[in-house]
Design a protein that fits this description.
Two copies of one chain form a homodimer.
Chain A (H helix, E strand, L loop, with lengths): L5 H16 L18 H8 L3 H13 L3 E4 L5 E4 L8 H9 L23 H16 L3 H4 L23
Antiparallel strand pairs in A: 1-2
Helix pairs in contact in A: 1-3, 1-4, 2-3
Bound molecules: FE2/S2 (inorganic) cluster (2 copies).
One FE2/S2 (inorganic) cluster binds next to loops of chain B.
The first copy, chain A, binds a DNA duplex (30 and 30 nucleotides) through α3.
DNA sequence: CTCAATCCCGACCGTTAAGGTCTGGATTGT
DNA sequence: ACAATCCAGACCTTAACGGTCGGGATTGAG
């Protein structure tokens, strides 16, 4: 249930990476772009993800106005805005499209039993809540999660995604 | 993104239906079962959904302890508990399995780049938030979608879901 | 006892989308 | 001129989803 695609995961990782690269902004360059340009290949190698796939994701993000791109020898991608002004919601939406939980959104608008479905409305509210939740998360929120223990690898904390209840 | 499967949708619809049938409980039968038994076929016809598919969904729900079943001529399904004690989360979980947004849960435990993934932890928190959100929704919340008691709002539309990163 | 109405279980199948690859072309700094 | 990039599609493979089928096990009714 409620599955976030790997593409969106990759996209968020890449954005976080870019935000980190541009992290210590010397506050001496108020114009131009927000962060340094990084090539798709570099980012892909940093995270060991398929380079060509990430390339396409970054292109999508660029088309959505979240990234700016620059071709050429020292080209690459940079954040179009400060990391604090990019929400997880718009990233996910840009990559995965406007799909939502109802599963009743076919290409024809709505599913054929939309007139009999009695839980459509409450589900829409859940949908909105999740949207709000995601909209409240900014890229800048991702960069300082577990940064305090140098040396030790993360993910040592045992139960990764145990999903237990 | 974040797509709820149609099966879960159907399951919720069926549960709501059962809850409605048993709605005006005369409070004179504190024992036995909570609601009247309805056959899978009846429920399927009420909503115009594939009967055989719904049958399987109800079986799953019964196995999960959410419904009780009774074979025989006047058999059918009934809620195993009052509708106010069944959450949307456990329904979805019973039907769609313990899948969650991370998309990094393969059958082998975790995805192979779990050691490089830097956003796993923040994502897990989002996950938990959604889980909490869904856990706060009860079947009884579905039956009075509009114009209900002003005292007991569904707490869904309020957007009071905050996430701490 | 017999029978019909049910629930139960597993196998099966078609469609779709996700994840990933490949090829060719358009920019642009050096 | 050339290499490093970005860009835009056309593919491919696999797995999950949505749905179907048939056979078997219960159980109330007549
Ligand atoms: S089944 Fe389509 S709106 Fe619920
Ligand atoms: S990509 Fe697997 S944990 Fe994020």
């Amino acid at each position: 249930m409620l599955r976030l695609t790997k593409k969106a995961d990759y996209g968020l990782m890449a954005l976080k990476y870019l935000a980190e690269q541009a992290g210590p902004v010397p506050a001496a360059e108020p114009d131009a772009h927000v962060s340094l340009a990084q090539s798709a290949k570099d980012i892909a190698e940093a995270y060991h993800i398929p380079p060509q796939l990430l390339a396409k994701i970054l292109q999508t993000l660029a088309k959505a106005g979240i990234l700016v791109s620059h071709a050429g020898t020292n080209g690459g991608y940079a954040l179009a805005r400060p990391a604090s002004q990019i929400t997880a919601f718009e990233v996910i939406r840009a990559i995965d499209g406007p799909l939502f939980i109802t599963s009743c959104i076919t290409i024809h608008g709505a599913c054929d039993l939309t007139s009999h479905c009695t839980i459509k409305e409450p589900l829409r509210k859940v949908n909105d809540s999740i949207k709000d939740l995601l909209s409240g998360i900014r890229i800048s929120d991702l960069i300082e999660t577990s940064e305090s223990r140098p040396g030790t690898e993360t993910a040592v904390g045992g139960g990764l995604i145990s999903i237990a209840l």
